[in-house]
Amino acid sequence: MLLTSLDAFVFRVIKWLQFSLWKAKWENFPLFFKKTQKKVKKQYKKEKNTEDLTKLNPYKPPMLSKYLNPRNDLAFKRIFGEERNKDLVIALINAVLSNQMHKKIVKIHFLKSTQEPETAAAKRSIVDILCQDEDGCRYVIEMQVAPQEGFEKRAQYYASRVYTSQMKRGGAYQDLKKVIFLAFVDYPLFDYKKSYKSEHVMVDRDTTDHDLKDFSFTFVNLPKFMARYPDTLPTSLEEKFYYFLCKADELTASQVKALEANNEVIQRAFQELDIINWSQAERNTYDQVEKIERDHRAIMTFARNEGIEKGIEKGKIEILKSLVAQGIITKKEADAQRAFA
Questions:
Q1: How far apart are CA 216 and CA 63, in angstroms?
Q2: With a threshold of 0.85, does the pTM exceed it?
Q3: Alpha-carbon gap, residue 218 to 155, rounded angstroms
Q4: In this model, does residue 279 exceed pLDDT 70?
Q5: CB-based contacts of 326, cutoff 8 Å, min separation 6
Q6: C-alpha closest to that of 233 among 221, 251, 209, 217
Q7: CA quadruple 292, 298, 302, 304: dihedral positive or negative?
């Protein structure tokens, strides 16, 4: 059908309008793009000093804490094993071991550890601190991060070594002093117990009399402690120490301030963990220890999972053998079940 002159005019006007709109859009696109760029840059400048930059760059890794991990071998010994920090380990002992001591201690001096490694980074059992109070009582303090088979026996071995090392040529048995073993463990230990803290002494089986008083063992299960107090800042010094050991490298500035409040001991402990107070050489050793502990944890987890899988498979085989022996299923059916599994 032929278009009339009016129809043709209207058609040309519509096409011209469409072309004009299309042209205007593409001519102004660079301006639109520049405005968008400026808007994004302005937003970035506004938010770059805030904690949440993931809105603009979701691949940016989270900022690291200014405090290092207190469960690290080097960090733990720096806090509680240095001469300048004797008051910190005294406060720790008095707070955690009050049930094991006849009085609060005032002075200590550090002894050479019999389990001292050649290099800090080579040690899997995070740290041993050996010290002695003014009455001669000796304290073995250890942080155990990675699970270790027979750790309870090792604790008794360490305590006995420290005990017997007191005996010198010509010495008398009555001069032997008490040994207290304190361990902070960062994995399930005595998991069947309800309490995160277990204290062990020698008692008479029948009367529970505490006649043999020279050995005591205290284990603090840090994961169990955190499970009981996941969102609550503790108030007692003892629990503040546990919370510090569990969370110091994860806390926000406001949480650190709340934990430090009116407590010089905790303030000093955080100062020792502040990365700004560590030399590059110390930080390198710290990183080596962290890597060793991570690798050891990964190996233990893998071995445990492998053991569980092999145990399940062995259990299935034994059940199928039993069913075949009882005539419930045939050997062919049992082999098929094993193949299907």
A1: 42
A2: no
A3: 10
A4: yes
A5: none
A6: 251
A7: positive
